[in-house]
């Protein structure tokens, strides 16, 4: 392996590990009394300057029409505001490790959306991957419901699944516009749109106040800053460069590190544990995603756009 490949692998692994820490940081912030909307607001506000600088320095690769910008607004709302909001809500009810496993099924949702709405062909191997993936999810949640006896777990799991679904829709919808303006610039625009929408959401909440955002314990702001910089901005660039150096197909081999690293981090920082049934279910989910992503074209559809 040459130095370039070593560097690409290092960037890929580091980016994935940082990105997968988000759920753990959210759960830690909840322990200090933060609510989902305020925490999402803080994350977006801390990340906003980085993406604004990119938007100011870079220019679209081709001419962008007013209709294109409307699509960017819509996709930004769906992909970064709604998906993130549902994810943060769901994390109030489920373990960080389970959250990452549910979000990990998004490639199968990209596949299904592309099949239903775009008429793209699905191979038998991809169908098998989808079936295996959701069997693993059933095993995981069946075990968690038995262990906790709480219906809130099912509700939280549904919220996170809807987060994965909205994000998958964003990925499919953004496929035609990214080549026009470039991946980093599109992500910057979409992130800035989502930040504005989160601010509006916060202001429309009953009893919300600007003073309330600055009334949390100091730890909440440090966790939000870490989430914005080291679990959002930094890994987005690391993984973007890793994909460029290794290729999407090679990078996809490292994808399973995300759920695994979240499980490890949740064990050390949150004291979370998984039952043997859930570990088995996690292995089944990862195997199913691997099957689905090895199908022709799926890796190139979403890996290049998720981590930029």
From TrEMBL:
EamA domain: residues covered: 7-141, 155-291
One Pfam family here: EamA
- What transmembrane ranges does the database entry give? 39-57, 69-89, 101-118, 127-147, 153-173, 185-204, 220-243, 250-270, 276-292
Tell me the domain of life. Answer: Bacteria
Instruction: Print the keywords alphabetically.
Output: Cell membrane, Membrane, Transmembrane, Transmembrane helix
Q: Transmembrane: is it a keyword of this entry? A: yes
Q: Specify the protein's topology with respect to the membrane.
A: Multi-pass membrane protein
UniProt subcellular location:
Cell membrane
GO annotation, cellular component aspect: plasma membrane
PANTHER family cross-referenced by the UniProt entry: INNER MEMBRANE TRANSPORTER, S-ADENOSYLMETHIONINE_S-ADENOSYLHOMOCYSTEINE TRANSPORTER
- What is the designated name of this protein? Threonine/homoserine efflux transporter RhtA
Organism of derivation:
Marinoscillum furvescens DSM 4134
């Amino acid at each position: 392996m040459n130095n370039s490949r070593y560097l690409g692998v290092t960037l890929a692994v580091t980016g994935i590990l940082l990105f997968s820490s988000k759920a753990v940081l959210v759960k830690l912030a909840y322990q200090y009394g933060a609510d989902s909307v305020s925490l999402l607001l803080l994350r977006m506000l801390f990340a906003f300057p980085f993406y604004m600088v990119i938007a100011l320095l870079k220019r679209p690769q081709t001419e962008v029409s007013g209709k294109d910008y409307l699509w960017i607004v819509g996709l930004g709302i769906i992909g970064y505001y709604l998906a993130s909001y549902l994810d943060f809500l769901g994390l109030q009810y489920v373990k960080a490790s389970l959250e990452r496993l549910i979000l990990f099924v998004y490639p199968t949702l990209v596949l299904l959306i592309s099949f239903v709405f775009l008429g793209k062909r699905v191979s038998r191997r991809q169908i098998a991957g989808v079936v295996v993936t959701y069997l693993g999810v059933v095993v995981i949640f069946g075990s968690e419901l038995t262990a906790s006896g709480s219906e809130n777990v099912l509700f939280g799991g549904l919220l996170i699944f809807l987060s994965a679904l909205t994000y998958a829709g964003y990925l499919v919808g953004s496929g035609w516009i990214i080549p026009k303006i470039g991946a980093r610039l599109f992500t910057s625009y979409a992130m800035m749109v989502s930040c504005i929408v989160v601010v509006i959401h916060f202001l429309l909440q009953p009893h919300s106040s600007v003073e309330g955002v600055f009334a949390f314990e100091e730890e909440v702001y440090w966790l939000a800053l870490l989430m914005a910089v080291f679990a959002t901005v930094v890994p987005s660039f690391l993984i973007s460069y890793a994909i460029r150096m290794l290729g999407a197909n090679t990078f996809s081999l490292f994808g399973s590190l995300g759920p695994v690293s979240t499980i490890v981090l949740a064990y050390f920082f949150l004291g979370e544990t998984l039952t043997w049934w859930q570990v088995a279910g996690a292995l089944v989910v990862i195997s199913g995603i691997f099957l689905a992503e090895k199908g022709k074209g799926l890796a190139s559809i979403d890996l290049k756009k998720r981590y930029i």
